[in-house]
Amino acid sequence: MTTEEVVVAITDIITTIAPDEDVTNLDRSERLRDQIDLDSMDFLDIVMELRKLYGVHVPEEDYKELATIDGCVAYLHPLLADKELHCAASA
Amino acid sequence: MVDLPRIVITGVGLTSPNGNDLAEYRRNLLAGKSGVRSYEIRHFGPTLAGVCDFDALRYQGRKELRRGTRAGSVAIWCANEALRDAGLDLDRYDRARVGVYPGVTEHGNVETESEIHNVSQHEFDLAFWSHHHNPRTVANSPAGEVVLNLGLRGPAYCLGGACAAGNLGLIHGAQMLQLGEVDLALGGGVSESIRTFGIFASFAAQGALARHADPTKASRPFDKGRNGIVVSEGGCLFALERLEDARARGARIWGELIGHCIGSDGTDFVLPDSAGQNACMRGALRSAGLQPEQVDVVSTHATSTLSGDEVEMRAIREVFGDADGVYVNNTKSTIGHAMGGAAALELAGNLPSFEDGLVHPTINLDDLDPECEVRNLVANEPREVGRIETILNMSFGMLGINSAVAVRRIDA
Predict the structure, then answer these.
(1) Global confidence as pTM
(2) Same domain, residue pair B271 and B357
(3) Mutate: best of B67, B123, B126, partner A, most A CBs <10 A
(4) Half-sphere exposure of residue B41, counting CA atoms within 13 Å on the CB side?
(5) Contacts A45 to B, Cβ<8 Å
(6) CB of B62 within 8 Å of any CB in chain A?
(7) Which CATH architecture has domain A3-80?
């Protein structure tokens, strides 16, 4: 996956978890929780989807790395570089 | 004994396999229109069930729907509909003094089966077990989902009473109002049980799951050809208030709870007992200050099993046998067995009789089993009986739990 595809993967997962939220104009450097309604259970859903879709295991001490979209890209791109994007949208 | 406040039903919110509000449901009960259809569930295969089609998104967002349970969704629908039917504005209440009391037969099976299926796709690695499993399976979760949906702060928990649970939620809500614990109660029962394959498999293992080429004819209480239960989902919550509060705000009153009884057979895990049911009926009549002949409609529990229907009708003959003008009916013939929602739905289906003077029929009664014969059994067609004053609603369940609620009309 490219870094843009990682963004698509993350926003696609968020759309699944929070289907009533508008994810089209998210600021990549701002905390996700400050832009849309995501609580701690939703966050665990994101971690679970990463595990189910891509086999990526994010340890609890690394959860803070995923607070923003930029943070997700920085943390996940190395882990997802050799994986295929699994969702309807494409970069 | 202390004089307790009188309790009335001011709103009805329901979803049944044949209706999503009281008017539609009543119309279909009078017309004998069944809500049972062909149904299939993983591992068990093709069967029959009563399936509801209420629009869950009317009162829930998609995320809320995804986060919660089907029983919670049913409860949220019923709670919102009951408030709407009652013309109640929650802003006029201290939200810590609104109680939510849904009865449930079981809760947690659907979610647990789903999670086991989920991890089975990952070689039973429990790293894939959902963090949602605990909040979805705690016994209070349907009640809690209503609290979250309506922004309430009061007592909210489920009453576990097998197939009698719907009466328990109603009785308990009334009691909490009488004790002054709450000022408004949403009490009744809900069920999501058709989404667990285990319930179908267990009834089938007992030889108690209905089979019929025509799903609408499968639930046939009292008929010689009956062969078991049709499992349904659904629910009903009643808005309950103290009479003086209902009158003060000019509420329309569906009826007054004038008596009840909850008891146990004390004899068997699954087989019901006439003596226990007899005692429960007599207990409810005593509680209501009624003689048997003063009851106009006896709403039976009967689930279309060979033994259960016979046991109940024996008790009814013993208690009401000589009384003229006591009409007996059954709602499970039309909607199947809605488990935790059954008792509440069956009472609700009879409440409009105070207004229309009709008793809805038990359907699919082609060949009456003589062991189930009772005087004035309303079969296949509704009966116009004139003024109806009192309904006795019975509901029994496994482990021998028995419940009966007596409701009387209140004229304006």
Answers:
(1) 0.96
(2) yes
(3) B67
(4) 22
(5) 131
(6) yes
(7) Orthogonal Bundle (1.10)
Distance from CA of B53 to the nearest CA of A (A): 21
Domain locations along chain A: 3-80
Instruction: Select from B366, B336, B332, B368 the least CA-distant residue to B350.
Output: B332
B123 in contact with A at a CB cutoff of 8 Å?
Answer: no
Tokens 């309506």 sit at which residue?
Answer: B150
- What pLDDT score was predicted for residue B412? 63
Chain-chain contact of B128 with A20 (C-beta, under 8 angstroms): no
pLDDT digits (tens, 9 = 90+) for B280-299: 999 999 999 999 999 999 99
pLDDT at B21: 98
Q: Are both B306 and B338 inside the same structural domain?
A: yes
The answer on B275 and B243 residing in a single domain is no
Q: What is the mean pLDDT of chain B?
A: 97
Half-sphere exposure of B155 (CA within 13 A, CB side): 17
- The CA-atom distances, in angstroms, between B112 and each of A69, B120, B204 are 33, 12, 20
**Amino acid in position B309:** D
How far apart are alpha carbons B357 and A79 in whole angstroms? 71
Catalytic residues of B: 163, 301, 337
Select the residue of A17, A20, A45 nearest B61 (Cβ to Cβ).
A20
ipTM, interface predicted TM-score of the complex: 0.90
Sign of CA dihedral B105, B209, B201, B49: negative
Task: Say if strands B98-104 and B184-191 run parallel, antiparallel, or are unpaired.
Answer: parallel
Contacts of B122 in chain A (CB under 8 A): 52
* CA–CA distance, B393 with B281 (Å, rounded to integer): 9
In a domain, B254, yes or no: no
